[in-house]
From TrEMBL:
Necessary cofactors: Zn(2+); Mg(2+); Co(2+)
General function of this protein: Catalyzes the NAD(P)-dependent oxidation of 4-(phosphooxy)-L-threonine (HTP) into 2-amino-3-oxo-4-(phosphooxy)butyric acid which spontaneously decarboxylates to form 3-amino-2-oxopropyl phosphate (AHAP).
Classification via InterPro entries: PdxA, PdxA_fam
Pfam family, any one: PdxA
Chief localization: cytoplasm
Key words of the record: Cobalt, Cytoplasm, Magnesium, Metal-binding, NAD, NADP, Oxidoreductase, Pyridoxine biosynthesis, Zinc
Family that this chain belongs to: Belongs to the PdxA family.
Annotated source species: Zoogloea oryzae
Coiled coil location: none
Gene3D superfamilies listed in its UniProt record: Isopropylmalate Dehydrogenase (3.40.718.10)
Protein name: 4-hydroxythreonine-4-phosphate dehydrogenase
Length: 327
């Protein structure tokens, strides 16, 4: 069986993305990894931390070379200095993403793994940008995607993501919750080898509303959706109080957790796995995994960046590609 080819986007050039890519040859991967970015910049950052690593040009019809980094050249707009953001390179970051997306859509790449970008500097370049997830959804024509983080023995997906807390309740509608659960269930089956996944669903309010005494969203929205989807054959538990859902005994009874909002589920997962967690975008027609951290400008070019999350993201992308028969 041939190995999948994965696109690794090097992300914000002033951040740690290129440094993390430099660490990839430390392991032997059951995949061909192609780093996307400016060849000269990546070579300079690689040789600053891994002097013996060869940096070679990506040849679509070629094969992986152990101990080397293959680079698909995407030119910088301006010289990049580690730790120093430059809006002139905001468009460059999106050029990298566009090339990776095009390669995934055409079948050139089995999936993509993304290093961190800096949302603010892309917006400063005049391109409205709210994040990888939203950009990928628009680029692939996907009406709804689901963010899930994997790490610390947990899979935690979100109904809402980057919303002010005051807006969360109104955002959680029956159609959104229904579609989110269907995407989560389908991708757990397709990409994670779980033919009948059990999903633990958090309530929104303290004590999951305590029968309506602490809020009615569970009664009005969450419970009716769960009952409907159980009738369709899904194995759903809940709504569960979030303060007791994330205890080992309960977590062991499920394959994934669905949290209602960002800071309900992710603090627990990141406490258990930060630096080794993976962000996965569910619902896309392509595979996308990512590191669980930001650009870490203070570490860029220092040789001290921990590649653990990137390694975990690559491992998961390989697993997902094989599950989809992309190897």
């Amino acid at each position: 069986m041939s190995h999948p080819i994965l696109a690794i986007t090097s992300g914000e050039p002033a951040g740690v993305g290129p440094d993390l890519c430099a660490a990839l040859p430390r392991r032997e991967w059951p995949a061909r990894l192609v780093v996307l970015g400016d060849r000269a910049m990546i070579a300079a950052r690689v040789h600053a931390v891994e002097p013996s690593v060869d940096v070679i040009d990506y040849q679509p019809g070629g094969s992986a070379r152990p101990g080397a980094i293959e680079v698909l050249h995407v030119p910088l707009a301006a010289p990049a200095v580690p730790g120093r953001l430059d809006a002139a390179n905001g468009r460059y970051v999106l050029d990298i993403l566009d090339r990776a997306i095009a390669g995934c859509k055409s079948g050139e790449f089995a999936g993509m793994v993304t290093a961190p970008v800096h949302k603010g500097i892309i917006c400063d370049a005049g391109v409205p940008f709210s994040g990888h997830t939203e950009y990928l959804a628009e680029a692939t024509g996907t009406p709804l995607v689901v963010m899930m983080l994997v790490g610390g023995g947990m899979r935690v997906a979100l109904v809402t993501t980057h919303l002010p807390l005051k807006d969360v309740s109104a955002a959680i509608t029956r159609p959104l919750l229904t579609d989110t659960l269907r995407i989560l269930h389908a991708d757990l089956v397709r990409d994670f080898g779980l033919p009948a996944p059990r999903i633990l669903v958090a309530g929104l309010n303290p004590h999951a509303g305590e029968g309506g005494h602490m809020g009615t969203e569970e009664i009005d929205t969450i419970i009716p959706v769960l009952e409907q989807l159980r009738a369709e054959g899904m194995d759903l538990v809940g709504p569960l109080p979030a303060d007791t859902l994330f205890v080992p005994h309960t977590l062991q009874q499920g394959d994934a957790v669905l949290s209602m909002f960002h800071d309900q589920g992710l603090p627990v997962l990141k406490h258990a796995s930060f630096g080794g967690g993976v962000n996965v975008t569910l619902g896309l027609p392509i595979i996308r995994t990512s590191v669980d951290h930001g650009t870490a400008l203070d570490l860029a070019g220092s040789g001290r960046a921990d590649p653990g999350s990137l390694f975990a993201a690559v491992e998961l992308a390989i697993t997902m590609a094989k599950a989809r028969g992309r190897s």
